[in-house]
Design goal:
The protein is an alpha/beta fold. Helix 7 links the parallel strand 2 and strand 3. The chain is elongated and about 100 Å long.
């Protein structure tokens, strides 16, 4: 559906609403001016409503006889709720056919409003959390606006950017775009959660402000969810692109192979826990979820700023949810310099330890892998801390992780004896030797 057709359909519904309201006004005007006996429907409704009004004069919630009398009043073809709701209006406006018609008018209004609310809800919510990436954010936004599936809302949640992001967002006039700006930095996960809390779509996807969706991502993944209600999320493969939006075929193939997507068959994943924990094949920015599934399970953990996507997939697998893999390159993941460096690595490794320590798996194989990864992560974090100059904490973690690689551990402990100013050069020299 093009954006023009989407807009035209909304315009048509507004016209229908106006016609409906005019017809309703004429109907009610005629009814109020007519002096004849009310028709059967109005008379029957008023009579039964008055019976309910009478029984509520002797309201007794703890009496079984009172509840039985209430139930016996109701016709078999209509639930008592409609009459119970009528009673307060009879108490407020009085008892009569005109007053009863006001209730019918209210019900009709509620139906109209509910239809409009349902129609105004987008099919898909796309969330882009952002922080100080005004130079890359437009590419992400444009990739959503250029989707072949146009029934979406786009939520950009800004974690207190200081680089002109508010000015950029003020230039977008598309009514489907919602901009949530936090005046102060509230953290990566909390920022993502604010976008999820504001979502109204049946389906939900979050991807980062430096990545992009290909034009058919929403249409292809949403079609699978629409066809099978047992599927909770659909993940795809993705391209690797550089800072200039150039796709790297070789790195893309390497990435797909590294994370187990190359040999992952299309369809519902049977061994989901192994796929999301051992192989880590699903990428959250290339996955469309049923929003109600995430509401039931809980979205990103507020206390995890990294590895929150790994944690989400593990929780989905442990909860018995169904994941579907679509082996098509429908998203673009960007590699660039901002993702590198010791200041990015250290917080990531701290959170990875917290993530891995949160679980203890029943499967002996998976639990062994978890323990090995935890040991490896402690070693890597210890080495990074030694490199940065946090010697004591770094040595403790290196000793805790030495069983993963004794040579690495002893090398790190040896480098910790160097002056802090020389450690960075020494570590870089070792990395170059290792290639």
């Amino acid at each position: 559906m093009s954006y023009f057709n989407h807009y035209q359909q909304r315009k048509d519904y507004i016209i229908l609403l106006i016609i409906w309201l005019i017809a309703l006004a004429i109907d009610r005007t005629w009814f109020f001016l007519d002096e004849s006996i009310p028709a059967y429907d109005q008379s029957a409704h008023l009579t039964v409503a008055l019976y309910h009004y009478k029984i509520f004069q002797n309201f007794n919630i703890f009496s079984g006889d009172w509840w039985l009398s209430l139930w016996q009043l109701t016709p078999s073809y209509r639930v008592p709720f409609v009459y119970i709701c009528t009673v307060p209006f009879l108490m407020l406006f009085g008892r009569g056919s005109d007053q009863a018609s006001l209730v019918n008018l209210l019900y009709t209004t509620m139906i109209i409003i509910s239809v409009l609310l349902v129609y105004s809800m987008a099919k898909i919510t796309v969330c882009i959390p952002t922080f100080n990436r005004v130079h890359l954010l437009p590419y992400a936004i444009d990739s959503v606006l250029n989707q072949s599936e146009q029934d979406f809302e786009l939520i950009v949640c800004d974690d207190g950017s200081k680089d002109g992001t508010p000015e950029l967002m003020s230039q977008y006039t598309d009514e489907r775009i919602k901009y949530i700006r936090h005046l102060q930095n509230i953290g990566k996960s909390n920022n993502m959660r604010s976008g999820f809390d504001a979502a109204s779509g049946e389906y939900f996807i979050k991807f980062d402000d430096d990545d992009r969706l290909t034009p058919n991502f929403l249409a292809s993944t949403a079609a699978i969810l629409a066809q099978d209600s047992s599927i909770d999320f659909v993940g795809t493969d993705h391209w690797i692109i550089d800072i200039n939006n150039v796709r790297d075929e070789a790195k893309t193939q390497e990435n797909s192979h590294r994370w187990g997507r190359k040999n992952l068959p299309a369809g519902i994943v049977n061994n989901l826990l192994e796929v999301v924990f051992i192989q880590q094949s699903f990428q959250v920015g290339a996955t469309l979820f049923r929003r109600k599934t995430l509401q039931e399970l809980g979205y990103m953990q507020a206390n995890l700023q990294n590895c929150e996507d790994n944690d989400l997939f593990v929780r989905l697998a442990l909860a018995g949810k169904n994941g579907y893999y679509l082996p098509e390159l429908l998203m673009e993941y960007r590699y660039h310099a901002e993702q590198q460096g010791i200041n990015r690595a250290i917080p990531y490794l701290f959170d990875k330890i917290r993530y891995l320590e949160n679980y203890k798996f029943e499967s002996e194989t998976i639990e062994t892998i978890r323990k090995n990864r935890l040991t490896e992560t402690k070693l890597l974090l210890g080495l990074r801390l030694i490199e940065k100059g946090e010697t004591q904490k770094g040595r403790e973690l290196v000793l805790a992780g030495q069983s993963f690689s004794t040579p690495k551990a002893w090398t790190g402990l040896g480098l910790s004896l160097l002056p802090v100013g020389l450690r960075g050069k020494a570590f870089n020299a070792l990395r170059q030797v290792r290639g």
